[in-house]
Specification:
- It is globular, with a radius of gyration of 19 Å.
- By secondary structure, the protein is an alpha/beta fold.
- It contains 15 helices and 11 strands.
- It has a single domain, classed as 3-Layer(aba) Sandwich (Rossmann fold), CATH 3.40.50.300.
- Helix content is about 40%, strand content about 15%.
- The longest helix is centred in the middle third of the chain and has 15 residues.
- Bound molecules: 3'-phosphate-adenosine-5'-diphosphate.
- The site of 3'-phosphate-adenosine-5'-diphosphate (PAP) has 21 residues, from α3, α7 and α14.
- Pfam families: Sulfotransfer_1 (PF00685).
- Belongs to the sulfotransferase 1 family.
- It is an enzyme of class 2 (transferase).
């Protein structure tokens, strides 16, 4: 894949632009908002719009590839770990030398719009990740018949997770409520990196309803509630089902344990992430369901829930709300 993505800068400059809550400009492309690329520590920053465009032009999927697709902060790190552990379970023992015990899941499963065009980690073997919305995916992902696993999460928790992540990323330790309000406004309008979280989910959800054998749709809250069932579902879908013997041996439980928040965050602590831009422990904060209520006002909660109800109506997406699952059925 081309690493010369500066060529896309001119195109980006012609697109609609809006400032987001951090004052950084975002550009609207194919209905979603992205930040522009910039050089950071001699590498081109990941997840830029230019990198998305380069992926669209240069990335060629194989029919056997499996893509883990997410809106950021919806469970990417966890899903990467689980899919990697499932796929490679005969290669590594679960001890201290397992790649997930020594590196971050992000080092094991590259993003197509980030590391995959810079290098080609040998661990990946057909397992790739992306934050690109469904309608903007490189065409070969759909035409090659590759499989996609998508995970969604309650938008309130996504927002609060993103808010903390971003503040850490820009090194802002203040708790200024105005900044939270500004971020909230941008998030609810969908003027956020990778655009509207709701539209992102809807694109993959509709595709999964149409092609269930090609797109598996998972839910962070459901993984928390019944990890065993969800991990088995994931293993079946990606073509590595557990045998009866493996199940009897407790293999599913081993994988869940290996990929638990505590284990992964410990392994990642203080290690540098590929592409060496940020420290890995930034991907681990609390890892629980419903923490957003500790940060959002009642009014903010109502606004986000209203958008979710309206947007997800008829799409059969389970959302955890007030201690129970609410499904906006068809
Ligand atoms: P990314 O898209 O930038 O990679 P992503 O992994 O999707 O981020 O989301 C990070 C969230 O997943 C964090 O949520 P929080 O801010 O609400 O705490 C992080 O703590 C959580 N997370 C990371 N690993 C796990 C895990 N093994 N189990 C459960 N949650 C996890």
């Amino acid at each position: 894949m081309s690493i010369i993505i500066e060529q896309y800068k001119n195109t980006v400059a012609t697109l609609p632009m809006q400032k987001t809550w951090t004052d950084a400009p975002l550009y609207k492309y194919e209905g979603f908002w992205y930040h522009q690329g910039f050089w950071f520590q001699s590498e081109y920053a990941s997840f830029s719009l230019e990198a998305v465009m380069a992926s669209q032009d240069d990335f060629h999927a194989q029919p056997t590839d499996v893509f883990l697709a997410t809106y950021p902060k919806s469970g990417t790190t966890w899903l990467k770990a689980l899919a990697f552990a499932i796929t490679n379970r005969t290669k590594f023992s679960y001890g201290p030398t397992h790649p997930l015990a020594t590196t971050c899941p992000h080092d094991c499963v590259p993003y197509i719009e980030s590391e995959a065009y810079i290098n080609n980690p040998s661990y990946a073997n057909g397992l790739l990740a992306t934050h690109i919305p469904y309608t903007s995916l490189p065409k070969s992902i759909i035409s090659s018949g590759s499989r996609i696993v998508y995970i969604c999460r309650d938008p309130k928790d996504v927002f609060i997770s993103f808010w903390h992540f971003k503040k850490k990323y820009i090194d802002d330790s203040s708790t200024d409520p105005i900044m939270l309000e500004k971020a909230f406004e941008c998030f609810s309008k969908g003027v956020f990196e990778f655009g509207s979280s709701w539209d992102h989910v809807i694109g993959y959800r509709k595709a999964s309803l149409e092609w269930p054998d090609k797109i598996l749709f998972l839910n962070y809250e459901e993984m928390k509630r019944d990890a065993k069932n969800e991990v088995k579902k994931l293993a079946n879908f990606i073509g590595h089902p557990f045998t009866e013997e493996e199940e009897a041996k407790g293999e599913v439980e081993e994988i869940i344990k290996l990929c638990s928040f505590d284990k992964l965050s410990k392994a990642s602590k203080d290690r540098d992430a590929t592409p060496n831009v940020i420290s890995n422990d930034i991907f681990f904060r609390k890892g629980v369901v419903g923490d957003s209520v500790n940060h959002l006002t009642d009014e903010m909660i109502q606004i986000l829930d209203k958008i979710t109800t309206e947007k997800y109506e008829g799409l059969d997406i389970p959302i955890y709300n007030n201690d129970k699952f609410v499904v906006f059925e068809k």
